[in-house]
Amino acid sequence: MEYLTPSPREEGIGVQSSPIDSRALAQLHRSNMMQWVNLYESCEDDMVRVPPVSIIMYRDLLQRAWGWERLLPKVRGSVDWDEYKRYLEEYWQFNAAKAVDGKDALDAAANKCIEAENNLIRSCVRHLTLEALSLGSQIKNRARGLIQSDGEYPAAAVALLCITNEAELMYELLSSGFDIAETLEFSTKVRQCASNLMLYKGPDSANAAAGAMMGVATKARMILDSIHQESPSGGIDYFGCQRMRTAIGVSLTKLEKELNAGTLTDRTEKSKDEKDGEKGWRRRMPQMM
Predict the structure, then answer these.
(1) For residue range 202-259, what is the model confidence (pLDDT) as tens digits?
(2) Using CA atoms, how far apart are residues 151 and 194, in angstroms rounded to an integer?
């Protein structure tokens, strides 16, 4: 489980305000990040510490301190948005194989997503709002559209994975008697966002959004594994993962808005499944907090 801990002179804290050229400042910043990594590697406990997000500027240090198996959210420090999007795209390239590959696998993922939504609605209908029920129908219709379509949708596979994990997590929490309203609301928003991205075929690359969805899906799976294994640290695992998921969700919402703006093209002919997807894009999703 990841823990937020102080870092040495994070983001230039402690640096004197005297004039300094940009090259020297960059060297100082890298030195601070190197110091953080060295301290982290010298720790003898098993605690996983979350580095400042600006460590993504140094891929070698990122590999040592965090790796590419999990997404580093913007929970500590700051970094340029375009730089973070490039990191999300690279993270997706490292982890794309975790999503499905090929039409047959995509169809299987769509059917699994439909099954997860059906299970959630069938077992937990009295706990769900009308909005959540309507969203479930929308997701299933779009998943069926993917099965029947020969089109290529770059974010479809990871969107299905993201939705499936969120639906399974909602089911587990509700069926176990947990009343965690904020998490359920968050999962609903993530499912809405992923549904909007599922049929995206706009002019801009969806790789950054795919990376964000993979990051959220991975954390949801970690919570599910902790529940299924009845881990004694389940509570810590849950709250740690949820904090990370919330931070990633903020980035995912921002990316969804950017891609939504990019779909305003002058194409005159669209397939039925494209039109269905674009209708979803025009439904604005509330900001994740």
Answers:
(1) 878 899 999 999 999 999 999 999 888 887 777 777 888 999 999 999 999 999 999 9
(2) 18
Pairwise CA distance, residues 76 & 52, whole Å:
5
H/E stretch holding 22 reads helix 22-42
Angle, CA 107 vertex, CA 199 and CA 220 arms, to 5°:
75
What's the whole-model pTM score?
A: 0.81
Give the residue ranges of DSSP H helices in 70-129: 81-95, 103-124
CA dist 250 and 252 (Å) reads 5
Partnered with residue 48 across adjacent β-strands are: 2
Higher pLDDT, 145 or 260: 145
Query: Among 87, 77, 58, 100, which residue's Cα sits nearest to residue 6?
Result: 77
Count each helix (H run) and each strand (E run) in the chain, helices first: 10, 2
The per-residue pLDDT for range 127-145, each reduced to its tens digit, is: 888 888 999 999 999 999 9
Give CA–CA dist 64/40, Å, rounded. Answer: 10
Residue whose token pair is 């490039």: 86
For residue 64, the tally of other CB atoms under 10 A from its CB is: 16
Closest CA to 193 of 149, 145, 259, 130: 259
> Which tokens sit at 225?
């594994």
| CA gap 174, 272 in Å, rounded | 35
The phi and psi torsions of 49 (rounded to 5 degrees) equal -100, 140
What number of CA atoms fall less than 13 Å from residue 232's CA on the CB side?
A: 0
Strand partners, 2: 48
